[in-house]
Amino acid sequence: MKFTETRGNDGVSPKSVSFSEAILGPMSSFGGIYSPESLPKLGHDFLEEHLNKDYKTLARSILSAFDIDIKDAVIDEALALYDQFDDCSNKACNPAPLVKVKDDLFVSELWHGPTRAFKDMALQPFGKVLSSLAQDKNEEYLIMAATSGDTGPAALDTFKNRENVRVVCLYPDGGTSDVQRLQMVTEDASNLKVIGIHGDFDDAQSALKSLLGSDTFNAKLQEKNISLSAANSVNFGRIIFQLMYHIHSYLELVRQDAISLGDKVYLDVPSGNFGNALGGYYAMKMGLPVEKILIASNNNNVLTHFINNGVYDISNASVIATTSPAMDILKSSNVERILFDLFGTERTKELMQALDSEKKYTLTQGELAQVQEIFIADFCTDDEGKKYIQEAFDDGYLMDPHTATCFKAYDTCRDQSLKTIVYSTAEWTKFSPTIANALTGETGSSDIDALKAIAKKAEIGIPDSINDLFSKKITQSVVISKANIETEILAFLDGKS
Ligand SMILES: *Cc1c(COP(=O)(O)O)cnc(C)c1O
Description:
Layout: E1 3-5, E2 16-17, H1 19-24, E3 34-36, H2 44-49, H3 55-66, H4 72-80, E4 98-100, E5 105-109, H5 119-137, E6 140-146, H6 151-159, E7 165-172, H7 178-185, E8 192-197, H8 201-212, H9 215-223, E9 226-229, H10 236-255, E10 265-270, H11 275-285, E11 290-297, H12 302-309, E12 311-313, H13 335-358, E13 360-362, H14 365-374, E14 375-379, H15 382-394, H16 401-413, E15 420-424, H17 432-440, H18 447-458, H19 464-467, E16 479-480, H20 485-493
Parallel strand pairs: 5-15, 6-7, 6-9, 7-8, 8-16, 10-11, 10-15, 11-14
Antiparallel strand pairs: 1-2, 1-3, 4-5, 12-13
Helix pairs in contact: 3-10, 4-5, 5-6, 5-10, 10-11, 15-16, 15-17, 17-18
């Protein structure tokens, strides 16, 4: 399987690359990203064959259908990381259980990994694959990530103590939950550096971008023989591990006798950078019987307007802080891969360049109709989300504020009573103050108080991995202003900090 450029070729970047090359360097000509040239078809027979197979077997079959240039032994080790997820002590490992919440609504829980958010589903195996590639090439890689709270912990966890890879993670000091911050600042492996920034997530992200574009910084990395790579969700190495759970959750519905093989379903995805939804789109294109993909947003509802009206417009938008912060995003990078797949390189380049220069692009009526064949969208305000958290709790299901946005889309976007798979992207423990507020009315609680309040109300325990964070030693205490980031990183790379 080859990967090609979404915006055409500039005569410098390679036109087409292998999977491993796309992982090590995801960016292509004109600011585009590498995307699969074609998709394998996994029809009815494939689904039937995997009905009684476990998650890792399904994953292995999908990877081999993509014919990727990664050694079988590495793939096996990467997939074995799912064994540390919950419910994997027995031999039929299921890292992503499907829970029935209403007649037509089933929740696919994607947060049973080590850092309790869905980023682990892809980053766990991805970390192993990337580090093996770096070792094979005998090269040192630096991964830099700016995080609003979930990517950071998941990236640190997957790369800790891995050979040939170092990670620098920038987070906005005061801009994450206590649990998210503690998950980062208690990491003590020598190949990891966590840096708090005075400012918000946008400051952390723009600091990262200016560093990536800095000639002096890049020259210094070259001197040290270190290459840069990216672990964000434009990396296809993450997307490939995300299309699997869409197929898995469909098979779970069949196994639970909720549908027959071949019946259509809705996928309902809480969306930010659009990696999760893109995984669903590829699964559908590969033959999964999907009626439509519901795109759930919060008050940052650029995607809702795009899918309903064909206009992607961020010209007057600024990020609004919500109770589902992992979805506080305006520019959803993976939409580009949908444009490329539907409309080809020329049009994608034109639209993405309009977005860069005018902060806006508009689809033709015909193009919009193609998008609406697949997607339908709505957004959920914080107050509505709170109501959905309360209602689900009364029905016996405890969920986080990101998952709650899908319940709104479930209510407003469906025109048939088909079974619907809602993707739950975080455990309740990661956003406890918002949930405690919804369930008890309490406001302004710290994470630990909120965790206790929810645990009491729901009559459940706080998981050890979360509880232990509050007594763990803080090993990463650097909090600095943007101006000092470069010096701090170079000192870390020299082993001096
Ligand atoms: C990252 C994240 C999302 C958004 O997923 P995308 O793939 O970026 O659309 C939603 N919810 C949570 C909890 C997340 O961590």
